[in-house]
């Protein structure tokens, strides 16, 4: 696997499924969310920020103190024992920088995912695989469904037993693959456990009919055992 694919893989998983809190990427995500919340509402509370970002209250407090120390946020005491938070000039500049960085990563992910999904759908079309199921309901699923509109391939539905919805991206959601009827191939869009999904599916389908976008970094060959 080359360095470019490895980089895309790590960025993808950061964007759609949070990695460990200590990573630099997650630090940037939390900092950007905090700066955006303060920039939007100076009376925002730490508890509200924690809820919106999906982090512990103590972690929100730690990041807020860090931003204050860096000169990104200014704190002012207001009546009723409350605090108001304001972005400094430096804070606005950092928010702008992080936003541009995030958008760049998001655009690169979309562009790479679109190219890879298109290539896999071209493969389906060339092989005469007309009925294709998508495995997992994620951002990658939406991109694959969008790409399918330019092909003669029918996306018959999505298999995902982790969401409580009947449809996603305008497609039927089923809990089991057999619930979608006969399929010619499946494309893994699961960004939570793509390797496990692949390993399970190749037990029921020919390996070549289980398609995997390279950005998921799925190993399609069994690991070599070392004695």
Low-confidence stretches: 1-23
Strand order of the largest sheet: 5-6-4-3-7-8
Secondary structure tally, helices: 7
CATH topology label of the largest domain: Rossmann fold
CATH architectural designation of the largest domain: 3-Layer(aba) Sandwich
Strand percent estimate: 15-25%
CATH homology-level superfamily of the largest domain: NAD(P)-binding Rossmann-like Domain
Helix content class? 40-55%
Structural class, by secondary structure, is alpha/beta
Would you mind describing this structure in some detail?
This protein is an alpha/beta fold and 227 residues long. The chain folds into two domains: 3-105, Orthogonal Bundle (Arc Repressor Mutant, subunit A); 110-216, NAD(P)-binding Rossmann-like Domain (Rossmann fold), CATH 3.40.50.720. Helix content is 48%, strand content 15%. The protein has seven helices and eight strands; from the N terminus they run H-H-H-H-E-E-H-E-H-E-E-E-E-H-E. The strands form two sheets. Strands 5-6-4-3-7-8 form a six-stranded mixed beta sheet, with helices on both faces. Strands 1-2 form a two-stranded antiparallel sheet. Strand 7, helix 7 and strand 8 (210-211) form a beta-alpha-beta unit. Helix 2 (24-40) packs across helix 5. It is elongated.
């Amino acid at each position: 696997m080359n360095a470019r694919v490895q980089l895309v893989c790590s960025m993808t998983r950061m964007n759609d499924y949070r990695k460990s809190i200590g990573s630099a990427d997650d630090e940037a995500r939390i900092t950007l969310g905090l700066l955006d919340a303060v920039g939007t509402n100076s009376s925002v509370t730490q508890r509200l920020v924690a809820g919106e970002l999906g982090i512990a209250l103590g972690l929100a407090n730690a990041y807020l103190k860090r931003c204050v120390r860096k000169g990104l946020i200014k704190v002012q005491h207001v009546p009723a024992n409350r605090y108001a938070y304001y972005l400094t000039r430096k804070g606005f500049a950092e928010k702008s920088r992080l936003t541009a960085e995030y958008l760049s990563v998001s655009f690169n992910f979309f562009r790479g995912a679109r190219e890879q999904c298109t290539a896999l759908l071209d493969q389906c079309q060339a092989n005469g695989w007309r009925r294709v199921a998508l495995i997992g309901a994620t951002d990658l699923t939406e991109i694959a469904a969008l790409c399918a509109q330019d092909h003669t391939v029918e996306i018959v539905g999505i298999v995902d037993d982790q969401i409580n919805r009947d449809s996603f991206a305008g497609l039927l959601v089923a809990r089991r693959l057999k619930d979608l009827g006969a399929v010619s191939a499946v494309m893994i869009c699961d960004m939570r456990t793509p390797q496990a999904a692949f390993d399970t599916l190749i037990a029921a389908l020919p390996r070549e009919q289980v398609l995997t976008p390279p950005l998921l970094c799925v190993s399609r060959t069994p690991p070599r055992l070392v004695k």
